[in-house]
Structure formats: structure tokens, C-alpha cells
Amino acid sequence: MKLSFFRAAVLFFAAILLVSDLFAQQDFSTDYFRIHVNNKGWITSMKNITVRPNREFSPADKPSPLLCLYDSKQKVYYQPTKARYIRQNKTLALEYPNGSVATIAIVPQKKYFRLTLQSLVPRNGIDVIQWGDYHTNITNLLGEIIGVARDTSEAVNYAIGMLALNDNTLGGTAATIADAAPFQYIIHTPDSKRFPLPDSLYEGQIFTLGGDGISDVAFYSHKAPWYRIMYGNAAMVDRKGNISIVYQSRDRSFEREVYYSLIPNMAANTPNHLQVQPLPGIDYIGSSIALWGSADSTALMDVIQQIVLSEKLPYPTINGKWVKDPAAYVPDAITSGNLYDSTISYTSRLGFKTISLYDQQFLRPDRGNNGYIDGRYFEKKPLKLTSGNVSHKTFADMAAQYGITIGRTPITTALAPGTMDASPVPSDSLCYQQQRLLVKGITPTDTVIVVDDPAHLEEIASWEGHCADLNMIKIGKELIHYLGVSSEKPYRLLNIKRGYWSTTPSSHTNGDTIYKLQVTINYGYDGLIPNMQLQDKIAEYYADVCAINGLRYYDFDGQEFLFNNGHGYYSAKRFFRKMFERAAALGIPAIRFTGATLSEGSWHYQSIWNVGSGKNLYDVDTREWGSTTSQGKDLRDATYANYFPVGMGSNFPIKAHSKVEDYEHVQAISVGVGTTYSLALNQQDVESCPQKAAIFTAISTWEAARAANAFPIWVKKVLADPLLSFHLESVGAGNWNLYKTNRDGSDRKLFVRLKSADGLIKK
């Protein structure tokens, strides 16, 4: 009996040991943040553990599913119903109503959690997975691009956010059409006491952009602080104003059709049906995120930077600093007048590092020149100097002697007529909206083209502007313009123009494939969209252009064209990764770039975002963020919430009547808010300014102090007030005196003595 009892006891305790690593509920902690996952796989607690008592950020009535599954064909979400944590493997098994079981690795790091989807078995129709929504009770700032909820108040000072750790994990919901969120306004007040909502509005309410849908300046049409423009949906608000964050990942291996527009609720930009190119091997298994919580005031440099470095995410630098570091923010020179005798000298004296040659025409991606934009022997010399015109390469070499780089404005992936991949011999690697078959063979002169299926062929190509002259099909190596399709059999394309864009009219046989092409817009952006493989080649082409011609900066106009293939932010990530990887292989440091938009796909790679110009952005005369439109306010709010420098656009040109105190104000705002801008330099105008030298000195003084990280947060908050005026004076290496002044620069009173970041700052 005793022996039997002993054996039973051994077996009992062995069983306990065997299952001791299985838990239904679990807490996970970093140095700053603790979450609780319950036995259903839902986060029921999110706490700041650096304060006592711990502050709770998970709404009691709104727990958060750790991972959701989505069937895009049925448009059905599945949420977890049961969870089992295996401590030994640091994995969580989640069960779902459709029969799927997801295995997730949860690995706490010092400052964040790494969550990775290891498997989903069986899939049972699931083609998208979604991390979250993770709901918070934070109501202050929503970072809709990278997915962050921020409370910037001194009383709370906390943020909760996510970052994707691989390219196929994107900011936004699983239901986002074509993986690029609608560009629109929502209602959200960042402070209900300072900015109470009118009775006619409610939190989360959606409004379209302004204007006719074509002029991008007119989009920005609401100056009230509760109109929040949205450049993504990785963070959203509910009716209470509470902020939730979310990421998703998709199986891209099969073709699907989407009905897509980036601005879907504007008549000029109604959606088109688009057959999205399958990308074999691009799947949601392996999708990974970093989930973090920390003090908001230190989140960027303490936590986000650590995630980027530890997870080997893109980490571009300028002057040895991460481009997201506020001490690395620096304006650029932007040229006008096409005379460059003094441009390098001006830029050097200003303390800037880059010259954007904006008065040159668009740099079009033309792989036919193999990257030699001035000819194989640099025989073209488009840059004008009094002493003799020069090529980009020569000018880049001249600028490099002063530590300055040069750049151009491309139209991203718009394949313009006359370029290698567009015409007169179009590539077979073009993106198409629809694929059909030719029912009856045609000769080079026939204008009756019969198709097997008329579905969606009545749509005018693109989603942006729907420019009729870009509505075309490709058969073989011929481009054919058309408008409309007959409603009855035989289905004929209408208003045919053969041999479009100087392609060669040819004979085509019954059963040949017809591609209705995806295109861009007019207004100088006219072009075809490449498929993903050709887009990869164009990304590499831009790196080749840098290597050959000395460029190190791009202003990617038409950056939204990266979304036109239906792969959204994944497409943007892939494009910039290919460009950066090619550049690195060629020995080129990270290319500094701005562009027409900012997205979760470009956030890591993009250094700045200078878009727009003049009084639409920041009006130095009225001292407001956008006096003619709300563009300045809108871009400021969106970028600041996403830990990104707002751009003040191409602005503040130095002219005959320019005054130094205006540039002191611009610099104070730039440092205080955390902005960059492109200073317009026209040599004739600059030389007409009596205060030219004083303006150069003032700007360079501010830039030297910013680069030295001499401005503490409390000083920046004061500098950001547009009603105040300042003067900064250098008083020796690494030392500056900051004065408060009248608006005209008079009556200077010492406000604070500043030192570089390694020194002491005395108030």
C-alpha cells in the first residue's frame, strides 16, 4: 500500500510539473509597461508601471483582442475565444470560432514586447490577420500613421504604440481596401476643455476633403482644431474620443479584386476596380509587431529608437544622427531662377546640408538612360553658372567640398510617354486594372475591338482625377486609347485611337490578352504604373542615378502612385527598401528624401515632409499655420502626433524687403514645434536684399544650436508660441544666449543661457 501511494504521489507531482508551464491568463511586463492577457486571448489591462499607483489605460468596458482573423471574401472578423500560454516556449495559442488556432510568440524586451505570428492552422478562409484593435482610454493625440495613442499632458505623459517589424505588417485594419487608408477628415478634439466640440459634431465623425478633388491645396479646408486630417488608420477614435491602435498583415499570394480610391468619397476620385497582382511567398505567417508603452516625452528617442535599432529596421541618418532625432532636423535650400553661381555658398552660410534643384524639370524614371541623366559622358550641362554650365555630377562634386548634397524632384513611378518602359515600346511588366480577351482578330487599321467581358471597362482609368486621355489598353506592344464600352453583345470598346503614345499599330489575333492599364494623372504627371517587379527595378534605378550623378536627395512628387498597384503601404515599404538596399550596395549612404505624402510605408525611410508652399503652410506675416487654407495646421497636427517633423514647405524666400527678425521667428517656430522647411533661393532676389548677411547669420546660429541639441523641452514649448519673438546669439563655442524681443527685434531681454547637450543649462 505504501509503495502504491508513493507511486501515485510521484505521478501526481509529475503531472503538475508537466502542465505547470500552461496558463490561461498571463501578465507581461517591460521596464515601463504591463499588459494582462485573459483566458480568452484579450488584453484587459495596460498599465504604466513607472508610477504609483500604476495608471490603467485599458477601458474597463472595452478589452482588446490580441489577434483577430479576417476573411476578406466574406468580410467577417473572428475574435479569439480561448487562450493557453506556454511559458517554456513563450507562446500563446489562441482559438477562434472558425476552427483556426493561432500560435503567437510573445517575447518581452526591456522596452517593448515582440509579438510574432508563428502559425495559423487551419486557415479556413483567413487571408488577413489583425493585431488588435488595442483600445486605450487616451483621448489626446492619435498617431494614425505609425499607430500610437499619446497623452502629452504633464499629469499623465504616457504613450502606447506599435511598430511593424517586417514589411508585410502594415499600420491599419484588416478591412482597409488596397492597404492604404482613405485620405479624409475625422472629428477629434485633442483637448475637450480647450476645444469643446460643437453640438453638431461627434468624435470619429468622417468628412471628405475640400475642393474639387484635383487641386491638392484645396483638400485642406477645415481650420478648426477638431478637424483632424488622416494619413492612415493605424490609430482611430471612438464616440468617446478614446484612441485605439491596430496593425494588419495579408496573404498576397493570390489575385484579388479591390474597388479602390485613396479619396473614395469625392466625385473626382471615385474608386476603380483593380485586379491586384499576386505576390507568391508574401504571407502573414511571420507577421511581427513591437507593442510598447512609455513616457510620451521620451518615447521617440528612448523606446522607438531602441526598437528600430534592436530589430534592424531602417535607420537613415544625417550628420551622424537618426533622422527622427529632433537635433537632426535641418531645413534645405530650394532653387529658383536656374542660376547657381552662389547657391552652394548661400547653403553653406545658412548651415543647411542639401540643395533641392526644384527649378529643373521633373526627373522621370527612364531606365533607357541607365542612370546617366546628363548622358553617358555627362555631355548635357543643365545647371547654369556664369562661368559655364555644368552637369549634375560636376555640381554635386562642387557642393560636396562644403559637405552639401544636391537633389531632384522625380515623379516617383510614373512611366512617362517616351521613356523606356512606356513608349514607343511598352513594357510587358505594367500594372493593369483589368485583364480581358480579344474576341475577334484585328488589323493595324481596325477600330472595332470586341472584348469577351465588359465588366468595369466603362471606368476611366486611375482613381485620381480620372483623366480621360490616359484611358488606354495594351495589346502586345501597342497602346490603344478608348472611352467606353458597348452595353450589349458584341461588347465593343468605343472611341478607339490606335497606336497611342507613338506605339506601332499592329495585327492582333483572336484570344490575345487585353490589359486595361493602371495610370497616373495629367498636369505633367502623365504616366503608366509599373507592376511590382518593374517597380523594384525603378527603385534600383533611382539609387543608380544617385551613384552616377552625385545626387543624395529626392523630392518624390506623386508618391501616392506607389499605392496604385493595390498593395498600399507594402508597396511603399518595398520600393524604398529596394532603393536603400541598392544604394548601400553601391556605397551610398541613406538617401534623404521628402515627398508628396507620408505613410506607414515610408515613415522609417523618409527624412522630412516638405510639401506645399507659402501662406498655405506657415504665414510669417500673420504668424499662423496656414492663413489661406488649413494645410499648415493639418500637416502640423498629423506629423507631430506621429513623431515626425512637420514641413513648412517651400517658403520664406529671401527678397529685397526681407527682414532678419522674420527669419528669427521662423527658426524659433522650427525649433519649438520641430519642423523643417525648404528656403527658396533665387540668386537675383537674394542679392537684392540689404539684410542678406544678417539673415544668413541668424539662421545658421539657430541651426548650429539645434544640431548641438541645446534646446531643452521646456524652452521648445515657449519657442512654439507664435505670439512671441526671439533672438539667438552665439557667445562662444557651444554657448548661446536666447533673448525675448519685440516683434521688430527690439527691446532684447535675456530669456535663457543655452549650452550644447553635454553642458549645463541655466534658467
Describe this structure in words.
A hairpin with a 7-residue loop joins strand 42 and strand 43. The termini are far apart. Helix content is 18%, strand content 27%. The strands form ten sheets. A nine-stranded antiparallel β-sheet has the order 1-9-10-11-12-25-16-15-14. About 2% of the residues have low confidence. With 763 residues, the protein is an alpha+beta fold. The protein is globular. The longest helix has 18 residues. Helix 5 packs parallel to helix 6 and helix 8 crosses helix 11. Keywords: Signal.
Summarize the structure.
Keywords: Signal. With about 775 residues, this protein is of the alpha+beta class.
The biggest sheet amounts to:
9 strands, antiparallel
Based on CA atoms alone, the radius of gyration comes out at 28 Å
Supply the number of helical segments: 11
Mean pLDDT: 95
The computed structural class is alpha+beta
What is the β-strand count?
43
The 3D shape can be described as globular
Keywords: Signal
Signal peptide: 1-24
Features:
single chain; 763 residues; alpha+beta; 9-stranded antiparallel β-sheet; 7-stranded parallel β-sheet; 43 strands; 27% strand
What is the topological layout?
Blueprint: H1 2-19, E1 22-23, E2 26-29, E3 33-37, E4 42-48, E5 55-56, E6 64-65, E7 67-71, E8 76-78, E9 82-86, E10 91-95, E11 101-108, E12 113-121, E13 128-135, E14 141-143, E15 148-151, E16 158-164, E17 169-171, E18 184-187, E19 206-207, E20 227-230, E21 235-237, E22 243-250, E23 256-260, E24 272-276, E25 288-294, H2 296-310, E26 317-318, E27 321-322, E28 332-336, H3 343-350, E29 354-356, H4 392-400, E30 405-408, E31 432-437, E32 449-451, E33 472-475, E34 478-481, E35 491-493, E36 513-517, H5 532-549, E37 551-556, H6 568-585, E38 592-595, H7 631-641, E39 646-651, H8 660-674, E40 675-682, H9 683-687, H10 692-707, H11 713-719, E41 725-730, E42 735-741, E43 749-755
Parallel strand pairs: 28-29, 28-40, 29-30, 30-37, 37-38, 39-40
Antiparallel strand pairs: 1-9, 2-3, 3-4, 4-5, 4-6, 7-8, 7-13, 9-10, 10-11, 11-12, 12-25, 13-22, 14-15, 15-16, 16-25, 17-22, 18-19, 18-20, 21-22, 23-24, 26-27, 31-36, 32-35, 33-34, 33-36, 41-42, 42-43
Keywords: Signal
Signal peptide: 1-24
